[in-house]
Amino acid sequence: MSSMTETCRLALTPGEPAGIGPDLCIAAAQQAQAEELIAVCDPELLTERAARLRLPLALEPFDPERPPTPSVPGRLLFDAAATLAAPAQAGELNPANAAYVLNTLRAACDGCLNGRWDAMVTGPVHKGVINDAGLAFSGHTEFLAERCRRDGEPTPTPLMLLATPGLRVALATTHLPLAEVPKAITEPLLERIIRIMVNGLRERLGIPHPRILICGLNPHAGEGGHLGHEEQAVLIPVISRLQAEGMDLQGPLPADTVFVPHRLQQADAVLAMYHDQGLPVLKHLGFGQAVNVTLGLPIIRTSVDHGTALDIAGTGRANLGSLTAAIALAAEMVQTTR
Ligand SMILES: NC(=O)c1ccc[n+]([C@@H]2O[C@H](COP(=O)([O-])OP(=O)(O)OC[C@H]3O[C@@H](n4cnc5c(N)ncnc54)[C@H](O)[C@@H]3O)[C@@H](O)[C@H]2O)c1
Ligand SMILES: N[C@H](C(=O)O)[C@H](O)COP(=O)(O)O
Fold it and tell me: What is the DSSP string of 163-203?
């Protein structure tokens, strides 16, 4: 692990090889970066995609013995941790490459755990094609949590938080079918999630006294029990307990009005109960510029806010904004944590 004064060393996973992830890594490599970027992938993928995009790219193998140096335009370090099973065709998913994608994530995560690099920044993966290949996968967040599990200990609970200027939204549940959400939101889970959120905002994002708005699960936060019982049975007891410990929490609040400007001005983050309660609002405000952060794990991981965009892979039309923001936030989190 690099020291206080050193350049941040960031692993970059391009994600789904048929998607825009490789395009974005190549685009990022065209710019000077304050960090050292190491693409964890099959270098052939980048060479072929760069040729298709007609962009210059000098690839150099990563040498952990050399001190980290800021990336220079047109040059990119790589760690050939995994090899494609079949050549990648932009825009065309191939389940044969699903295991390769997961191997790049394993290598990037393990490198964070063993100090090979300071943090990992992930490009988008395609959850469907990984499952089509017979590999159970619901998202990076859950996969990395499992990878960070220590022998004999339970899997750490990960917290997904997306951030864009003016709004941070975290999720109590992540990639879960909607029908399973109510029973997943138990008192122990919610208490764990709120503690991780408060600690993560403090320790990783440098907000000393985070103010958090907590959405109800039901319309109008249950309308006093007339539109659902989870607020009274689960949310209110947990929130009251943690407020009594001094945490700055408000809720459960009706999710339809929690995101109005005057409320957000008085808060550092919102906790939504499920994926599509929080993320549509965040993406409406900041799609293409927002960052997905995983809190609650012993590693620093940020990611783009968008998917694989197969419709534009290999065309040069992919917007670099979210990856740029994800790299910047990972570096900031590394500095905050040093
Ligand atoms: N970080 C991740 O790994 C991540 C995040 C979200 C979705 N996904 C996965 O991506 C796949 C496709 O999801 P989707 O179609 O809902 O969303 P998507 O983000 O891939 O595409 C939605 C629309 O936005 C456009 N778009 C996305 N990123 C863009 C960029 N950087 N520049 C310009 N245009 C861009 C696409 O062309 C498309 O029109 C799914 O398998 C989903 O699970 C992965
Ligand atoms: N929930 C994320 C989003 O909608 O942007 C996305 O699916 C990626 O999640 P992971 O980082 O867990 O793969």
Answer: EETTEEEEESS-S--GGGHHHH--HHHHHHHHHHHHHHHHH
Residue nearest to ligand 2 atom 11, measured at CA: 140
- Detail the residues annotated as belonging to a binding site for substrate: 140-141, 283, 292, 301
pLDDT score for 4: 55
Q: Is the CB of 187 under 6 A from ligand 1?
A: no
pLDDT at 3: 55
CA distance 206 to 209: 9
Tell me how long the chain is: 338
ipTM: 0.98
| pLDDT at res. 1 | 46
Q: What is the per-residue pLDDT for 338? A: 86
Q: Which of these, 165, 160, 157, lies nearest to 268 by C-alpha position?
A: 165
* DSSP code string of 37-61: EEEES-HHHHHHHHHHHT---EEEE
Q: What is the pLDDT of residues 40-74, one digit of tens each?
A: 999 999 999 999 999 999 999 999 999 999 999 99
For the chain, residues with pLDDT lower than 70 are: 1-5
Q: Which atom of ligand 2 is nearest to the CA of 303?
A: 11
Measured at the CA of 72, the angle between CA 68 and CA 77, to 5 degrees, comes to 55
- Ligand at minimal distance from the CA of 282 is 2
DSSP annotation of 231 = I
Residue partners of 225: CB distance under 8 A and separation at least 6: 231, 232
pTM of the shown model: 0.97
> By the 8 A CB rule, do 316 and 132 touch?
no
Which atom of ligand 2 is nearest to 143's Cα? 12
Q: How far apart are CA 193 and CA 214, in angstroms?
A: 11
Atom 18 in ligand 1: residue holding the nearest Cα:
307
Ligand positioned closest to the Cα atom of 308: 1
- CA 40, 43, 48 angle in degrees (round to 5)? 130
pLDDT score recorded for residue 186? 98
Collect all residues with Cβ–Cβ distance below 8 Å to 45 and sequence separation of at least 6: 14, 17, 22, 84, 88
